[in-house]
Amino acid sequence: MNSNLIFLALSLLIISCKNEKDSIKDKIIPSIKPDQYITVLGIAQDGGFPHINNTDEFVAVKNSEIKKELVVSLGLIDSKEKKKFLFEASPDLPEQLSILDDEYLKSKSIIDGIFLTHAHIGHYTGLMYFGREAMGAKEIPIYAMPKMKTFLETNGPWSQLVALRNIIIHPIKEDSVLSITKSLRVISFKVPHRDEYSETVGYKIIGNHKSALFIPDINKWSLWEKNIVEQVKQVDYAFIDATFFKNGEIPRPMEEVPHPFIEETTNLFKNESEEIKSKVIFIHFNHSNPALDVDNEDRILLEEQGYRFATTRDIFPL
Q: Residue 160: phi, psi to the nearest 5?
């Protein structure tokens, strides 16, 4: 073989090996998790996806045409302190705890604390798995506001969890700062919602370098005493209510289940920069919401403007 051809072949081989190594490196680096971070463990509204009374959705999942989505939940991890927390105890709690343990932080305790927002089915009913019929857990720390605490203590089957000390309720107060590790803090604040059994709260999560809002449920932004645009500007991430995309989305009066439509939320941010819009991370999608489809044109248009849509296993460093 001509010496020039040999040199060319060797050069191409070296370049090919380098590109392969670089490719492997690119795959490894994103998997290195920061010391503190939030991970998304579920994005669906309380009824889940697929949704009851929608056989076509279940069939589509069975046929791998769409994928199942777990009910809304965030994981909060401090790997240095070896602590992990949940925001919400969804009906998918067993699977979400398994994901935390297997993919993020394996530790002696199944969970170091769960923060509840309110008493609607997608946000607290996962507590049942800590009871004697399932895990028979011992003193799982549950953080709840006063009405939520009273609701759990005085209504079965939740009261049995308290009586048997499967869970220990730690009361939290509005706007109080709770230090859950040396460098992680949580602040709770009330938001207007359908408070049939408890108040409804959102949370601000503060780490060493960044902070996040978590408001999965609220009636309408205009009913809140705070300005959502200004609140988003003060944090790095804002996981906010995206139950419905627009009015008329479900076959019943939407006044029965008031939420800010994605269209309404983005209208409030229309004059803000792409940097501000990129802090908005939509979460808590009803099964009817077209934004569940990553190929939906309206979703893509909003993503081009900077808005983000939560995806299970996303990681957000703190």
A: -70, -35
Distance CA 100, CA 105 (A): 6
- Alpha carbons 127 and 164: distance in angstroms, whole number: 13
CATH classification at residue 44: 3.60.15.10
- Tell me if 162 is assigned to some domain: yes
Owning domain of residue 296: 33-317
Residue 26 lies in a domain: no
Cα→Cα distances 307→171, 179, 274, Å: 34, 30, 8
d(CA 72, CA 186): 18
Give residue-wise pLDDT tens across range 175-192.
999 999 999 999 999 999
Q: Is residue 163 part of a domain?
A: yes
The residue behind tokens 């944090």 is 235
- The answer to whether residue 3 sits within a structural domain is no
What are the tens digits of pLDDT across the range 141-166? 999 999 999 999 999 999 999 999 99
pLDDT at 31: 57
Domains held by the chain: number: 1
Q: Show the low-confidence residues of the chain (pLDDT under 50).
A: 1-30
3-state secondary structure of 317: strand
